[in-house]
Amino acid sequence: MWQNFPRCALIFLLLALSGFIYLLRNIYTLESRVQSSFIPEHLPTFYHNRTFCAHLGQKSSPEDELEERYLLDIIAWPGPLPSSAPVVLRQTSDPVHSLFTILPTKTGRQWHVGDQLEALVQIHDFQGRPKHYGGDFLVARLHSPELGAGVVGEVVDHKNGFYSVLFPLLWEGSAQAVAVLRRLREERPDRVFFKSLFRLGFLSETTVCNMCLPPDQQPLCNYTDVHTGEPWFCYKPKMLSCDTRVNHAKGGYLKHLITNKEALLFQSGVNIKVYIHPSGPDRINVLPPRKERSNIKPDPVKLEPSGYYYEGTWRSLSGIAVRQFNGSPSIIPCLRNKVINMYGDSTVRQWFEYLIATVPELKEFNLHSPKNVGPFMAVDSSHNILLKYRCHGPPIRFTTVLSSEMRYISNELDGLSGGPDTVVVLSIWAHFSTFPVEVYIRRLRHIRRAVVHLLDRAPGTLIVIRSANLQALDQEVSLYNSDWFSVQLDKVLRAMFKGMDVLLVDAWQMSLAHHLPHALHPPPPIIKNMIDMFLSYVCPEKKKNHQK
Predict the structure, then answer these.
(1) Which residues are in the NXPE C-terminal domain (predicted)?
(2) 97, 118, 313, 547: which has the fewest Cβ within 10 Å?
(3) What integer pLDDT is reported at residue 170 of this predicted model?
């Protein structure tokens, strides 16, 4: 890492280097806000029964049911001891009263590159009393601003109010060191509602739609996908037939979902993404790797971060040699003669927008699609490059999508020929946070099956999957898109595609390890690092032939 640095520059960097560990307590977050002029006078009363929504669609096989139980087990979240008493803010976790301590190593307070740094966190409530149960949502980052370095830490919940946070030490220098949401996800998947416009001639009607609607309140239009069995329903218009549906759109957010006491748990600057302070020194000095063989036993927990930042660039630890793709001169040769198909939510549409902004030769073809909705297409005819984006099927909280353009990703993949000049990029997570996890598992299962079929018939096809990322928080929308929801969807995604011939771009760690604020659509420096990793996978660096 250091061999290309002049000696004086190296010393300067080591002397100037500083950073910090920070631990974020995070309860909720945001996907997007779209004001709607359609506010139904009487929204239907939803059945508070998770199985009604989660187990619609095709009947699962015994193997699928076994996998689902496994996936639900790996995201099971510890919580407080059962109690009939109501939630009281003063007895909940308070980041201001909580503390962390950097623990010494087995040989004292010396750390070397390749070691692990461990911090112990003790959570206290608003009365300053230590908590004796787990379940807090903590995220951690070790950061050195002057070097543009950062890496994500692993949080271990000891379920007694204490948490261990473990960091891999990857560079030299100094470094400074949920019951309401679960209930809403399982009982109120209708807290974001959707709508569709039906039109025939001069007559039009708008009705409420969702993945699961009570069947005994009004007649339903059944739009369940015939290929995947993915369910979707709208209330039937009073005057029009079901086949007159024109579009799909987000209707709005339901209000008054929690009590006033529960609302106290969701306060920005109080218990949402607030720093936990150290009880002692928050800096360490990291020495070069040990040259001699050590008799020290290895750490019991082996950390496996997907990568880390150094000098502002992402260095992957997953086997991908990440190169820099700075504009057309490096991107065009990589994408020449390729078709890039992007499917998913707005977080992958951001990749499409980045590429057409960075490569002027990619000319966007006007498909007269709604802004921020798509589908979109860009072409570089001189270099035979075709770039396409299409949003995933419902549920999706976009403003207005034509019914004819509502496509499920698995069906789109089944229609691809594939091959060595075909690249597929997938990102699907942000619009599933209001539904039981079983709904997301079912959707990923269809996509995974389609990916397997595509790779079987066209082995040279490249598949890239973008994971979830942390987001900015806003109190009003905290109950709809929490980071707590997202981290569980992220774990499910990783588990379901583990071992497959796909590249996972770890947007979670890339957004957490970076010093810039969290955002649903990460800022350009983070997006560039994602694109660099994506292109490095599409165009791996050729190994140099050494002449004998």
Answers:
(1) 314-539
(2) 547
(3) 81
Backbone angles phi and psi of 17, in degrees to 5: -70, 130
Q: pLDDT (tens digit, 9 = 90+) per residue, 396-420?
A: 998 899 999 999 999 999 999 999 9
pLDDT in tens, 141-156: 887 877 788 888 888 8
Are 356 and 387 a contacting pair, CB within 8 Å?
Answer: yes
Query: What is the token pair recorded at 516?
Result: 């810039």
Amino acid at 390: R
Amino acid occupying residue 326: N
Q: Note the helical H segments in 406-514.
A: 409-414, 437-457, 483-497, 507-512
On the CB side of 126, CA atoms within 13 Å amount to 10
- What is the DSSP annotation of 37-103? S---SSPPPPP--HHHHHT-SSPPPHHHHHHHHHHHHHT----PPP-SSPP-GGGSEEEEEEEEEEP
Residue 280, token pair as written in the block: 């002692």
SS3 for 223-253 is CCCCCCCCCCEEECCCCCCHHHECEEEEEEE
CATH 3.40.50.1110 at 320-538, yes or no: yes
Residue 100 pLDDT: 76
Q: What's the whole-model pTM score?
A: 0.80
User: In which element (H, E) is residue 198 found?
Assistant: strand 192-200
Name the burial class of residue 458, with classes exposed (0-12), middle (13-18) and buried (19+) by CB atoms within 10 angstroms of its CB. Answer: middle
First-residue to last-residue Cα distance in the chain: 27
pLDDT digits (tens, 9 = 90+) for 45-68: 444 444 445 556 677 888 888 999
3-class secondary structure, 308: strand
Cβ atoms < 10 Å from Cβ of 143: 21
Query: Which residues does 12 contact at the CB level (< 8 Å), separation at least 6?
Result: none
Query: If pLDDT is split at 50, 70 and 90, which confidence band does 364 have?
Result: very high
Amino acid residing at 370: P
